[in-house]
Amino acid sequence: MSVHRFRPGDELFQSSIDAMTSAPLRPELVWRTIPAPSRMAPSTWACTAEIIVHDEELASGRLVILHDPEGQEAWDGTFRMVALVQAQLEPEFAIESMLGDVAWSWVTESLELHDADARELGCTATRVVSQSYGALASRASTVDVEMRISWTPEVAEGAESPELGPHFAAWTAMLAAAGGLPPAPPRVSSLVPSHRARAPRPSSEEGR
User: Which has the least CB within 10 A, 4, 73, 121, 187?
Assistant: First the structure.
């Protein structure tokens, strides 16, 4: 049974997704499809992904692609990308007042790197610093960053739908940047992370 929601007769969306998922991606990315939300648009597709280097998870996220043939005013288009990026950074970022600006640069530079033209681009970056005291004071401080991004992919002149491959690659580049990896073209492995990061994991209390 398909986990995606394709409106009957929406071959345009199906072909766009097929072309996107057949494009090469950077080798550190591990992704899988997940059930897509059913109320956000007539046709939807979703996946989760992690950036993994030497068996260590550096960043994680989720991507939802929406399609409404009638368009939606807030999108200014018929397609919409809705992305989540999460990573746990080293403690030094706890005092980095410009982290929000840095996170925003990960978004804009990733889109630019992959020639993913977008409009109605928005991002909310949240930083959470966790520091333990008392009997838990020995626990190291952690800094989690969460970015929620959405944008409308541009449609080339004369085309019926946007080319989604560059936008999918741009999202993976955002994950890689949050995980501390330098930009890398598809099929080229990166070298040393620019900062040490790992994807946030729920505490034992949260998992109960």
Answer: 73
The H or E element that residue 43 is part of is strand 43-53
Q: Is 139 helix (H, G, I), strand (E, B) or coil?
A: coil
Q: Looking at residues 49-57, what average pLDDT do you find?
A: 94
Residues in CB range of 192: below 8 A, 6 or more apart? none
- 10 Å CB burial of residue 205 (0-12, 13-18, 19+) is exposed
- Can you tell me the distance from the alpha carbon of 190 to that of 187, in angstroms, rounded to the nearest whole number? 10
**Cα angle, residue 27 at apex, residues 123 and 202 outer, rounded to 5°:** 55
pTM, full prediction: 0.81
Q: Which helix (H) or strand (E) holds 77?
A: strand 77-89
Question: What is the per-residue pLDDT for 207?
Answer: 43
Question: Considering only CA atoms, which of 67, 52, 29 is closest in space to residue 21?
Answer: 29
- Kindly list the domain boundaries of the chain, sorted by start residue: 11-178
